[in-house]
Specification:
Elements: E1 14-15, E2 25-27, E3 32-35, H1 46-53, E4 58-61, H2 65-71, E5 81-84, H3 103-117, H4 119-134, E6 139-142, H5 148-161, H6 165-173, H7 179-189, H8 205-219, H9 222-228, H10 234-245, E7 246-248, E8 256-260, H11 266-282, H12 295-304, E9 306-312, E10 315-323, H13 327-330, E11 337-345, H14 354-368, E12 373-379, H15 383-391, E13 395-403, E14 411-419
Parallel strand pairs: 3-6, 4-5, 4-6, 11-12
Antiparallel strand pairs: 1-3, 2-7, 8-9, 9-10, 10-11, 12-14, 13-14
Length: about 425
């Protein structure tokens, strides 16, 4: 499942449902949404119909009053109430910043200002979220891009729900999937100009990581911040949110279905890979980077080999590539193997064991071609991934200290293979 809900004019409206908590439950889907500016919605349009179909009963607009006047607010409708709570008291002009400004430290410092200045508004926002949860009514909160003020409020709510910090960081960074569209909107509003700051619209994981660290240094924990700075009963608030917004993680899932990818699937494959890259970065795994593999890559792999998709209950659950040779990693070899690459699952929403099931499916495909081995490689610096493949029956066959894919510097990989049949 792609967390970004498709709209024509909104680029960053996301469902916070599906994230797992430390106690093994998950956030209920379709109850809590975060978004970019809802002033881009207009009645009698498909976007407006899509928005109303979410069943939202409360809208929290975190922007300044002057932003609302300039950019508009969500149209009025009897199905929801609207609240304008400007949590940011010290405006700053992100597009005008110089290229020397590092997004991580700079934005984390701004978020701490908001945490200390906007206590009245943040308190009210959390109370509204608690009330909506208790009444089983979907709620959306938003700012202009759905990144900074929205990301900060989302981090507090997810922490109170018991979502682990790496997932909170990952959720923040998912705005990276919308950056291109957000930049296009800014250019359209500003005569085609480009922001002076390269960090505009970006959401690197370092921002949220540094903010949460600063909040802990100042207050000890998110709960202590809620108690001391917001003057709320953090324990009672957390209990209400968890009671109404969490549910047991499913134990049964529809069976996976598999099909060959077609050129029309290339955009979904790019988003899947970029989502997996953001998942890795939020957990300190320096392997994939968003934007490294575009549609051209996947189209080439479809022509030269095979790309397969796995679906679960109508939703994309994962994908993998199958190559019939891999000289960059394995050198010249006889046609005795298939080479599995980019085994990916949708973070948080794929069924448990989906990766292992897709791996087995790839092995079956290789065996059907009369080849005796399934081969793959992983970064030599990623022992966790190596252990995953070894537990699936792969053995280390060697090391390639200088693999290159033509897009960057050579890197070391561990070569693994499995005899089939």
């Amino acid at each position: 499942m792609d967390r970004h809900i498709p709209f024509d004019r909104l680029h960053n409206l996301r469902d916070l449902g599906g994230y797992r908590t430390a106690d093994g439950r998950r956030v209920r889907p379709r109850r809590l949404f975060r978004s970019d500016g809802l002033g881009k919605l207009h009645p009698d349009t498909p976007d407006w119909d899509r928005f109303l179909a979410l069943g939202v009963g409360t809208v929290i607009d975190l922007r300044h009053g002057w932003e609302v006047e300039r950019q508009g607010r969500v149209p009025e409708h009897p199905s929801f109430t609207y609240h304008n709570l400007s949590i940011e008291h010290r405006p700053y002009d992100q597009p005008a910043l110089g290229p020397e400004v590092e997004p991580g430290p700079y934005l984390a410092e701004r978020y701490m200002e908001v945490a200390q200045d906007g206590t009245k508004e943040i308190r009210r926002a959390l109370q509204l979220i608690s009330d909506a949860a208790a009444s089983d009514t979907p709620l959306v909160f938003h700012c202009a891009s759905g990144k900074d003020r929205t990301g900060q409020l989302a981090s507090l709510v997810l922490a109170l729900l018991g979502v682990p910090e790496p997932t909170i960081i990952e959720d923040f960074s998912l705005t990276e999937l919308a950056t291109k569209a957000l930049l296009a909107d800014w250019r359209a509003r500003n005569g085609g100009r480009t922001p002076a700051w390269p960090g505009y619209g970006r959401a690197p994981e370092s921002v949220m990581r540094l903010f949460l660290a600063a909040l802990k240094t100042r207050y000890g924990s998110v709960e202590s911040y809620v108690t001391e700075a917001l003057d709320l009963d953090a324990e009672a608030l957390s209990r209400t949110l968890r009671t109404h917004l969490l549910e047991p993680t499913p134990t049964t899932w529809p069976p996976l279905t598999h099909r060959r990818a077609t050129p029309a699937d290339a955009p979904a494959l790019v988003r899947l890979r970029d989502s997996a890259a953001l998942w890795q970065l939020a957990r300190g795994i320096d392997q994939w980077k968003p934007g490294e593999k575009g549609e051209t890559h996947f189209l080439a792999r479809m022509r030269e080999g095979e790309v397969w998709l796995a679906h679960c209950g109508g939703h994309l659950a994962g994908a993998w590539e199958l190559w019939w040779d891999d000289p960059a990693a394995w050198g010249p070899r006889p046609a005795d193997a298939g080479y599995i690459h980019r085994l990916m699952t949708t973070p948080h929403t794929a069924p448990r064991g989906a990766g292992r099931e897709m791996l087995a499916r790839a092995e079956s495909r290789i065996a059907a071609e009369g080849r005796a081995f399934a081969r793959l490689d992983c970064l030599a610096s990623n022992p966790r991934l190596r252990g995953y493949y070894e537990s699936a029956g792969y053995r280390v066959a060697g090391e390639q200290p200088a693999k290159t894919d033509g897009t960057g510097s050579p890197y070391a990989v561990t070569l693994l293979e499995k005899r089939l049949g």
